[in-house]
Protein: Right handed beta helix domain-containing protein
Amino acid sequence: SLISGNFIEDTNYRKEFGGWETAAIKFHQTTDTVISGNLIRGVFRQQQGAFGIWIDFGNQGIRIIRNIIYNTEAATVFLEMNHGPILVDNNILIGQPIRSNSEATVFAHNLFVDCGYEYRPDTRRRSQYYKPHTTKVVGRKSGTAQDDKWFNNIFIRRGLDRVKTASGYASDYNVFLEGAKKTSFGDKNSVVDPYVTGLTIRAHPRGVTITFSMNDTPFLVKGPWVDAELVGIFPTVGQTIEDRY
Structure:
């Protein structure tokens, strides 16, 4: 499936719906899905869920690329009960944190502004995973932290210092600015700089302008190409990130 080039604004703006089903884009049980080039802003709630992109329960082989998400009342992206691989790359995510109880997610080349990462394990439920590139179920597993990666990202004001390490976690070659902090378990080749970017957001009827300044700090990081060779094969699903997305 491909969800691309959409402008999604003011989801549930009357706040008529509560519960856990509100999001601008939401999927259950998909494989080989790309969500690309969407502008999402204004996701509202009575209570509980109000997410930008919600990858909900038993999805595999997902790529979230080149999206801009801001002004959501809950998480910009919620990755719920998936076992990977999920590739989140080249996005601009502003405001609410990413929320996850999934595994095997790769975050690469993103701009995160006031957007941290919150992991909440779910050991009560078990979601399915599949033979790669099919919907043939081969197993079920609870939502536990494993094999997440962060490479070549820029964090402004909020970073990864609250992320606790887990099996297969890796983080490196990131840039942390304006008070954002790196992980306690990785980021050997990352840089931290208090530089103030002066980032502003200006909404237009059919778009948005995001401006900020930058010093030379990001150019000090010589990050690797983020590919299947770097991240490896994720053990639960026996699959890696691939150009097939």
Notes: Residues 2-231 form a domain with the Pectate Lyase C-like fold (CATH 2.160.20.10). The CA atoms of residues 109 and 153 lie 5 Å apart.
